[in-house]
Amino acid sequence: MSEIEKIQSITHFIKKKAHELGFDKVGIAPAGPLDEEGSRLRQWLDRGYHATMNWMLSRVNERRDVHRYFPEAKSVVSVAMNYFHGTAKEKLKISNYAWGDDYHVVLKKRLIQLLKDIQERYPGVKGIACVDTSPVMEKVWAQRGGIGWIGKHTNLISRDYGSWLFLGELILDCELEHDSPFEEDLCGSCTACIDACPTGAVVDDYIVDANKCISYLTIEHRGELPEEMADQLHDWIYGCDICQEVCPWNIKFGRRSEEVAFSPRSDIVKKTVEEWESLTEEEYKRIFRKSAIKRAKFEGIKRNISANFLGRREI
Ligand code: SF4
Q: How many Å separate Cα 102 from the centre of its chain?
């Protein structure tokens, strides 16, 4: 088998296996530095838009250059899984992405399986599986792999699923056939997400200030909420989907995920306001077992529930 045939064979194998494992989209890009995107990340951090997420500061160089993270990297395989299950209708809302099992675990397991399958068929291939927590600019790699473009709300949008996508990557030490990057920006003159954000967190096209973002405040922020944002959660107690719900690409192309792991748990999506108010730590542990919501911790969820009552007793 020639070198080119080997590259074609392994690329075909990876894409076929990835779809068999339940990934809805797969895109491949050559590993290399992300100079422009890295500079934009640096500017964003310099402006303090990362709020208290100081862990973002510590591994910027790895994010900018995948070889600092995985020196043997030659290709980045990006995968995406549709998680959409409808829009939150309850009085106290949880972001769609957290209605089922923790996606970090679901995607990571499958990426590791994909790597094992590759290694069984092509011994000697080395790789690393990443989901969210690795120092990797996931949306940029997905765009480079042709999966979609990064919208003005800064989420990745695909033509066929909108932005309701979980992303993950397999960084490999072998050459693969690359997909064309997604060069178009299909946001055009739309500003729906910017206009709809109730706290003005999309401060400019393609720039989100986490200090004002309900998703950041309800998930990542520890301790008391900043005074100016404490009554600004707009019924969200974990995450926020407003910018995604108003996006015309999601309205037109969002479709229900068939992935059982992401099916809404009734304990999470069907609670009344009174039930949320009386949530105990024991119940929290039970209903959020294997859920991404654990990240906010019990104290965080209780804080968010209480914050939604600030000056809004009508809830
Ligand atoms: S709402 Fe409009 S501007 Fe915002 S991401 Fe969607 S298409 Fe782009």
A: 12
Could you tell me which of 65, 70, 4, 5 has the C-alpha nearest to residue 36? Answer: 65
Quick: pLDDT tens for 82-122: 999 988 888 899 999 999 999 999 999 999 999 999 999 99
User: What residue owns the CA closest to ligand 1's atom 6?
Assistant: 247
Separation of CA 190 and ligand 1 centre (Å): 6
Pairing mode, strands 202-204 and 156-157? unpaired
SS3 annotation, 101-165:
CCHHHHHHHHHHHHHHHHHHHCCCCCEEEECCCCCCCHHHHHHHCCCCEECCCCCEEECCCECCE
Residue found under tokens 């290709």 = 75
Is 248 touching ligand 1 by the criterion CB < 6 Å?
Answer: yes
Atom 1 of ligand 1: nearest residue by CA position: 247
CA R_g for the chain: 20
In this structure, the strands spanning 236-238 and 93-94 are parallel
Q: Which two tokens stand for residue 176?
A: 């693969």
Ligand 1 lined by 208 (C-beta under 6 Å): no
Q: For this structure, is 267 an active site residue?
A: no
pLDDT at 47: 98
DSSP state of 188: T
In tens, the pLDDT along 224-267 reads 999 999 999 999 999 999 999 999 999 999 999 999 999 999 88
Give me ligand 1 centre to Cα 29, in Å.
Answer: 25
How far, in Å, from the CA of 159 to the mean position of ligand 1? 12
